[in-house]
Amino acid sequence: MPVLPPCNLLPPPFPLSQLNFIPQHDPSSYKGSSGCRFLTVGASPPYFGALAYASAATLQAGADMTTALTLEDAVADNLRNCPLTSAETMVYSSNLLPPPDIPNFSNSISGTLIGPGLSRAPSSQSWACTVASSLPPSPSKCIVLDADALWPSSSPSILETLLPPRSPLILTPNIVEFNRLVSTHLPDSSNYESESDKAQLCKLLRTTLNVTGIILKGPTDIITTEHCQLTCSTNGSSKRCGGLGDVLSGLVVVFVSWFLKYSKAGDVSVALWCACAVCRESGRRAYGKKRRAMQAKDVIEEIGGVVEEVWPLFDE
Ligand SMILES: NC(=O)C1=CN([C@@H]2O[C@H](COP(=O)(O)OP(=O)(O)OC[C@H]3O[C@@H](n4cnc5c(N)ncnc54)[C@H](OP(=O)(O)O)[C@@H]3O)[C@@H](O)[C@H]2O)[C@@H](O)CC1
Ligand SMILES: Nc1ncnc2c1ncn2[C@@H]1O[C@H](COP(=O)(O)OP(=O)(O)OP(=O)(O)O)[C@@H](O)[C@H]1O
């Protein structure tokens, strides 16, 4: 076990040894071979920035390759021209990679994120349902649903398309999205007051949906899995700019995929906590430098440094 340098997110609320699920670089590996290839699905006008943030976060955390999939050619063009994603991200529209091709394509993918900037338009929702249902189920490949992928659209919703889950399924709602999930799936529990009620409701929602995990984002992130409930309230940025949830969702798909591939002990809540803590610590550093001018892209720039500090590479 390496000696970990001091960092704002250490020590974690679980044994330090459980942090040991992040791969080292192996000279014999080839691009994407170490569980470092991801698929991000979303982006509709005017929200293409959200998928750019999420995809860029995966790359900064350590992904070898990330492929962004959008419905429309025009949005794909926007993403290709976006400084955050151009060159590093392969961008497909549904014309270039239609759902019948997704099962083959997704064999090399370690995890999929659906939702950032997707929009709630029925055409986007039903396209994302088709994409979700064409992902081959696998116990080692996670699916993360965020933002508009949590919208209770006409039946079945994207979430309902994936139920009962045949792959590890993680939901990352903000408080508004969480309240919508509760009123849709737990209509008798919609009135809750305290933080502990909220934590109990997270447990009830996770059990009802039978998903692998839920992160309820907020001043304190509440992380709920089958065996564990953790909170993450390490210092973050005081500025609440748009796009921080997108950054978190990109980190979640990377950390959970690595956990499923490399972890030898512990619960997936460890991976969810790491994603939250890295997002907050990156926000704290970006805010320290940029103050009022901080944007999500500044947070993304800090991710690589935080990850290296906690999980240093042992280069020869
Ligand atoms: N650059 C981009 O492309 C970005 C694109 N994005 C994409 O935008 C899409 C819409 O996502 P969204 O979450 O902004 O939903 P939206 O319907 O506007 O919110 C509904 C209303 O809820 C409230 N509210 C929200 N959060 C709250 C909170 N924590 N606590 C309390 N209240 C809260 C608030 O109500 P208000 O305060 O205005 O009354 C708000 O107006 C989605 O696809 C997402 O991925 C974003 O990721 C950002 C960067
Ligand atoms: N009041 C807060 N104080 C500190 N951190 C917060 C606070 N609210 C949210 N966060 C953190 O900010 C990140 C994004 O959460 P937020 O609730 O803003 O997501 P979101 O609404 O989905 O974001 P987006 O703008 O991408 O749609 C999470 O890592 C969460 O831990």
Automatic annotation (TrEMBL):
Cofactor(s) for this protein? Mg(2+)
Question: Which superkingdom does the taxonomy of this entry point to?
Answer: Eukaryota
Record keywords:
ATP-binding, Lyase, NAD, NADP, Nucleotide-binding, Phosphoprotein
InterPro entries named in the record = Carbohydrate_kinase_pred_CS, CARKD, Ribokinase-like
Q: Any idea which positions bind ATP?
A: 217-221, 236-245
Chain ranges of the YjeF C-terminal domain: 14-310
Task: Cite the Pfam families for this sequence.
Answer: Carb_kinase (PF01256)
The Gene Ontology biological process terms listed for this entry are: metabolite repair; nicotinamide nucleotide metabolic process
Q: Which reaction does it catalyse?
A: (6S)-NADPHX + ATP = ADP + phosphate + NADPH + H(+); (6S)-NADHX + ATP = ADP + phosphate + NADH + H(+)
The molecular function terms of the Gene Ontology recorded here are: ATP binding; ATP-dependent NAD(P)H-hydrate dehydratase activity
What EC number(s) does its UniProt record assign?
4.2.1.93
Q: Which SUPFAM superfamilies match?
A: Ribokinase-like (SSF53613)
What does the entry list as the binding residues for (6S)-NADPHX? G117, N174, I175, V176, E177, F178, N179, R180, D246
Q: Name the family the entry cites.
A: Belongs to the NnrD/CARKD family.
Which function does this protein serve? Catalyzes the dehydration of the S-form of NAD(P)HX at the expense of ATP, which is converted to ADP. Together with NAD(P)HX epimerase, which catalyzes the epimerization of the S- and R-forms, the enzyme allows the repair of both epimers of NAD(P)HX, a damaged form of NAD(P)H that is a result of enzymatic or heat-dependent hydration.
UniProt-recorded name of the protein: ATP-dependent (S)-NAD(P)H-hydrate dehydratase
